[in-house]
Design brief:
With 179 residues, the chain is α+β, with helices and mostly antiparallel strands. It has 2 helices and 13 strands; from the N terminus they run ββββββαββββββαβ. Strands 11-12-7-13 form a 4-stranded antiparallel beta sheet, with helices on one face. Strands 1-6-5 form a 3-stranded antiparallel beta sheet.
Length: 179
């Protein structure tokens, strides 16, 4: 039995859960998330606790058990507390600013790079080089942060680029001098 899958999910008081077959809608102070789960797992609510159970012990059901529980827990956590990814820009002349909803970055190209976040994701900039991506859906927040990072990925020689604040860049030595 999956250790992750059999763990119950506690639902905070501010969060409402509605089950319609395998479709779960979670409403909270930070928004509403809806997801349809596979038929190999069933979701059961007992008061303020959610349980994810699998139909049988086939390989597919076992693999979806823990995944479904984690996705559901992320939905509950997202609408109650939210998720946040932080990035930093390292490089001379690299800067960012928010114009309306759009993130505008100067990354050493001949043109500014603009990113329009999807609905439910908020981008903020502190000190022209620190970017914060916030939202209720963990998957979307991570995808937007990865998109921002991909516009100028950090390079290993000088360490310049857009990187996560928790990321460590393994530096390489440059070319060896002539002998």
């Amino acid at each position: 039995m999956s250790r992750i899958g059999k763990a119950p999910i506690d639902v905070p008081d501010k969060v409402e859960i509605s089950l319609d077959g395998n479709t779960v809608t979670v409403k909270g102070p930070l928004g509403t998330l809806t997801r349809t789960f596979r038929p190999e797992v069933t979701i059961r609510q007992d008061g303020n606790v959610l349980h994810v159970e699998r139909q049988n012990d086939q390989r597919q059901s076992r693999s979806l058990h823990g995944l479904s529980r984690t996705l559901l827990a992320n939905m509950v956590n997202g609408v109650s507390q939210g998720f946040k990814k932080e990035l930093k820009m390292v490089g001379v002349g690299y800067r960012a600013q928010v114009q309306g909803q759009t993130l505008v970055m100067q990354l050493g190209y001949s043109h500014p790079v603009e990113i329009n976040p999807p609905e439910g994701v908020k981008i903020s900039v502190e000190g022209n080089v620190n970017i914060a991506v916030e939202g209720a859906d963990k998957e979307t927040v991570g995808q937007v942060a990865a998109l921002i990072r991909s516009k100028r990925a950090p390079e290993p020689y000088k360490g310049k680029g857009v990187m996560y604040t928790t990321e460590k860049i393994r530096r390489k030595a440059g070319k060896a001098g002539k002998k």
